[in-house]
Amino acid sequence: MKKKIPIQDLRHGMYVSELDCHWLETPFLFQGFEIKSDEQIDEFKKYCQYVYIDTEQGYDVTAPKFRPPPGTPTAVEPSPDREIEFEVLNKFSPGHLRPPRYHDQSTLEQELTEAKGIVTETRETVFNIMDDVRLGRSVNTAAAKKVVADMVDSVIRNPDALVCLNQLKNKHEYTALHSLRVCVLALAFGRHLEFSDIELNLLGIGALLHDVGKMKVPNEVLDKPGKLTEIEFDLMKSHVPHGVSILEDTKGILPISIEVARSHHERFDGHGYAFGAKENQIGLFGSIGAIVDCYDAITSDRSYHDGMSAHDALKKMYAWRGTDFHPQLIEQFIQCMGIYPIGSVVELSTGGVGVVVSINRKRRLKPKIALVLNSDKTPFTAPKVIDLMQQAFADPGKEVEIRRVLSPGLFNINPSDFIPLGA
Fold first, then answer.
1. Is 404 helix (H, G, I), strand (E, B) or coil?
2. Coil, helix or strand for 71?
3. Are residues 372 and 383 in contact, defined by beta-carbon separation less than 8 angstroms?
4. Alpha-carbon distance 402 to 270, whole Å?
5. Helix, strand, or coil here: 61?
């Protein structure tokens, strides 16, 4: 039963199901979690006057005060090595505030010029690596590490530029460009998780090379427009052990990077492939690889399906938490990508329609928008980028907000057409 209580009555063991303010404007991840520390209660007091508790999932106000003893497990007991890896999530627990490790050093417009050159070089490098693997030659580790280092530098300065350019997709070059996009997404996610420069480079090289094993799968299977037969699917699944073997035989690639190739098709409840790992048997880098690989796959046009919108993809992946993906990690990925991910087509409270080109890491409801259609749904003569935080275009005293997310097909809008490539 849901019950409204004043904030001063909040106790350990209660399950908070709803706030008196919008959760997006608070430091908490999501509504719906158990109170486990005094720090959480103190943070609630800063933002709320009352909350709603669910007495079926936690203590009622009449229950005795409860403080779980130190070390009480709240999920499957992790193995020691995995427990250390996933400690990174502790800093994002509800009510835990800390100064962020990274701050944007450049604007989207400033970083786009540099990012375009990085994408061009990385694309060429990936194609060369794929050709080398197909012909049985060794992976050019130096070239891969060079482009990954450049991407890391760009993502640290401002991740939105490379994520924005990720919208430029060609389904006929899916395998190679998928590797590039997965690398960008992994690095943006790693930055959000406050990985060090070294950790980002290790994650990036694993993400860039996670699909090299596909060069050992016949093209007619990779590019088949229809459903794969059981034999064909077994061939497709073989790209994982092939990739692991190739990377293990490649000098300069560390095991932690190879974890991305090994585990990017494993699933949290164990129904993935190719090694049947589950829960804490899947490492942090492998779990990240699984999330970003899936996100790019379901948002991309393929020979056998049209990609869904970024907004719909995140909603679907959130529904898969605990079955396909590590629950806390998928929540953080959604935080990283934003409530309105780059490439989302949105309608504003003015009636105008635009494409999200940059998220706001401080106010997630206030991204930058490339305006495409006027309030009467007629096209702008020249699309312009506006910042909902600044709202210089708004009437005095009237706040412009995002009203809803639209299907790109509703007005036949291709988000990549409105990326500010001229910057």
1. strand
2. coil
3. yes
4. 38
5. coil
Cis before residue 144, ω within 30 degrees of 0? no
Higher pLDDT, 176 or 300: 300
Strands (E) in 115-245, as ranges, are none
Task: For residues 387 and 321, give the distance between their C-alpha atoms in angstroms, rounded to a whole number.
Answer: 32
Per residue in 376-391, pLDDT tens?
A: 999 988 778 888 887 6
Strands (E), 238-363: 345-348, 353-358
How many other CB atoms are there within 10 angstroms of residue 284's CB atom? Answer: 24
Interacting residues of 99 by C-beta distance below 8 A, sequence separation 6+? none
Q: How far apart are CA 199 and CA 194, in angstroms?
A: 9
Is residue 204 within a helix (H) or strand (E), and if so which, with residue range? helix 197-208
Structure tokens at 245: 């073997």
- Token match 């974890």: residue? 259
The C-alpha atoms of residue 264 and residue 274 are separated, in whole angstroms, by 9
Which amino acid is located at 253 in the chain? I
Rounded distance, CA 63 to CA 413, Å?
54
- Condensed to tens digits (0 to 9), the pLDDT of residues 15-46 reads 788 777 765 555 554 556 677 667 778 777 87
Cα separation, 407 vs 412, whole angstroms: 9
194, 91 Cβ separation under 8 angstroms: yes
Q: What is the CA radius of gyration of the chain?
A: 23
**The token pair that represents 47 in the structure block:** 């933002």
Tell me the sheet residues that pair with 338. Answer: none
Token readout for 291 is 């999330």
The conformation of residue 122, written as its DSSP 8-state character, comes to: H
Interval 216-274: pLDDT, tens: 999 899 888 888 999 999 999 999 999 999 999 999 999 999 999 999 999 999 999 99
> 265 near 275, Cβ under 8 Å?
no
Long-range contacts of 132-138 (CB under 8 A, 24+ apart): 133/212, 133/215, 133/216, 133/246, 134/215, 138/249, 138/250, 138/251
Q: 4: which strand partners?
A: 52
> What whole-number distance in Å separates Cα of residue 369 and Cα of residue 295?
22
The CA distance from 409 to 58, in Å, is 44
User: Which CATH architecture does the domain made up of 108-337 adopt?
Assistant: Orthogonal Bundle (1.10)
Are the C-beta atoms of 418 and 372 separated by less than 8 Å? yes
- The answer to whether the beta carbons of residues 103 and 411 sit under 8 Å apart is no
Secondary structure of residue 410 in the 3-state scheme:
helix
Task: Please name the residue that has the structure tokens 């993502």.
Answer: 155
Structure tokens at 305: 């399906």
- Do residues 141 and 155 lie in contact, with contact meaning Cβ atoms separated by under 8 Å? no
CA atoms of 75 and 166, how far apart (whole Å): 35
